Amino acid sequence: MKLTDNVLRSFRVAKVFRENSDKINCFDFSSNGETIISSSDDDSIVLYDCQEGKPKRTLYSKKYGVDLIRYTHAANTVVYSSNKIDDTIRYLSLHDNKYIRYFPGHTKRVTSLSMSPVDDTFISGSLDKTIRLWDLRSPNCQGLMHLQGKPVCSFDPEGLIFAAGINSEMVKLYDLRSFDKGPFATFKLQYDRTCEWTGLKFSNDGKLILLSTNGGALRILDAFKGVVLHSFGGYNNSKGVTLEASFTPDSLFVMIGSEDGKIHVWNAESGMKVALLDGKHTGPITCLQFNPKFMTFASACSNMAFWLPTIDD
What we know:
The chain has 313 residues and is an all-beta fold.
């Protein structure tokens, strides 16, 4: 089944889970699309089975808190950042709920965490104005970049380069093998003083970069030329909330939630709005991602919602 405008417009909430007492700050689908793992401001980690449509397990990170949770390539393991006590990144085995390794180094809150799509490398960006490069097999930082401002960062889909959005006004592209030589491309964007960049993602085809903000606007850039192709607005975000925006897996559509519980979808090529979906969320939709393998997506406030299409186009 292919994603079309009509199929997207037909999505409805199939299930709502109320496992959390505070907002879900992040979630991540497993690469096979079968499970989803969430982190919440209530210090819990909840594992959901996407096929059965139910929560499987809840773990707690009471001491350090939990944010920016990401699956690694090994089955049943995740990395996440702390939001209490310190700014260490933790590598957890879900199987026995034990830490495998700690990654200390950042001195302020970690705001970006991106796992390489191809190996055990991951990168983190922090309010301490650094990006650090790590390997899951070693607690020592493998690379450190001092920046002129707060970063958001992400790997490209091939894991060969990473992009850093810096100070909400420029995007720099680095070759992973020679990042210490500096960026091979820098794109300067018009600075918007009304909002800060809160997320950076590549489309799966590697051609587009999506910049999300804590304001009421998103931008898509050409990943090769750095030109802004589209700016999307018209969704509610008056309180400066970090709202996650995502591409669909086919790279054709962009979606974001809003503070009033609605989801807005645009065509990434034409820039036209395709759908407005009502998730009946009780708070702002802080997290939103499409399943990488199945025709379903998830959205979250303090509740988690699974969506399914109601037509098969």
